[in-house]
Amino acid sequence: MTDSAGAAKWWQRAGDRVWVPVLCATVAFYAIVSQDLLLAGVPVKLPLLALTLGAWLGHRRAQAPAQRPRFSFARSALWLAVAVPLLWTAVAAVDAAAGGGLAAIHPSYVLQHANRFAYVLLYFPLAELARAGDGQRGRLVWIVPVFALCGVTFALWLAHQLAGVNYGPSSLPEKLFFGVIGSAGDGYRVFIGNQILLIPAVAVVLAALRARGAELRTLVTLAVLLATAWISHTRGIWLGLSVMALVMIALGVELAPRWRRWRTWLGAAAALILMLLLTLGPTGAIVGHPPLFGDLSNQTRSQEATPLYAAFRARPLLGSGLGAVLASGYNRDPARPWVFELTYLQTLFQMGALGLLAILAFPVAVTRSGARRRNALAALPRSLTDAGVGALAGVLVTCATNPFLFASFGMLAIVIAVVTVEQAVTEPARTAPAPVTATVPAAPAAAS
Description:
- The protein has one domain (9-428).
- Helices cover 66% and strands 4% of the residues.
- It has helices spanning 2-32, 45-62, 74-98, 107-115, 123-130, 136-163, 172-176, 198-212, 216-232, 235-251, 259-280, 282-286, 296-314, 343-373, 379-400, 408-425, 427-431, and strands spanning 38-39, 42-43, 103-104, 179-184, 187-192, 325-326.
- A two-stranded antiparallel ribbon has the order 1-2. Strands 3-6 form a two-stranded antiparallel ribbon. Strands 4-5 form a two-stranded antiparallel sheet.
- The longest helix is centred in the first third of the chain and has 31 residues, at 2-32.
- The protein is globular.
């Protein structure tokens, strides 16, 4: 008993001291490295996640119960991270026992698919860090890695443009990054799947512009993020950014009493649209950008749609289970045959209509909470709430036609958007002054 008690105390002390650096390292790795690097056959990201959660739990145990923060979306996060993969792993087991139908079940693919949901658990340490102090440190833990990703994107693009460097299948960038780095059609692009994190980053910057007006540092930050999106030249990223901006505009119409703030806000939105038009138009061809529509990925999506829809119709409610692959043998990636470009059609095939609703329950709960509580907030927290809701919408739209949802960086983008909402809606609890209780004088005694 003494040894176990000593070990528990050591774990609490160690976790309390190192949980923030470990969290920073894990988020940085998820934000920059998109490929699943393996260690003894296990993706490195999973031990990193376990180490982060273990350190955070040690820190939490070291706190007094009254000091432990309560999380606004704890039940929804645990539902998606734990309950959903367990339920649909059971569906896969039942489907395998029944013969599979239009799907084939492989235990390794079931485990690969199920463990992707665990990344949602980063919500808890990120939310606690975001609510500490003024919240700035909580944003820096993911904003800094996003800027590192921007630096990687610029470096790869400039190396090709200025020195003619090309990256083959065995090059280091191809081993680290999931995406397209190289010539596509008549142009060159540097698309890395992690760039989906640009959506919440741009949302937070737009929130700062809307609440505080034009500041040089904020404008430069926005320019760097949009330039990175332009270099990536990815339909899904631009569509997600556009949806995010439209949601923020729709939610924040009443937030700009001064023309100066409206001018800055509308200028930022116009810049976003202008960048998209420049990518689509002749300027893209001048600087060597490939066409944005009609590429090979569209052919892949059209080939996937018919067999996925047919398999969904065979089991429309619960699907065929996690990790299910098409019995016909069709796949887009032999290493991960259970992953498809059309994420939501894939989800309908593997998890059915109920499974898709189970996944969307988390972002829907966050959106409802943010929309319900935003009107009682000050300008900046309300803008951040709109940024989180807009980022959620943009990320989910981007994931519709890209295999990002069941990836560490896709889940991280959703968690960041959720934490942004949580930080904003809990702002009054951290800054509101103590209520003043009025003292009512006692009524004089009635004369007898």
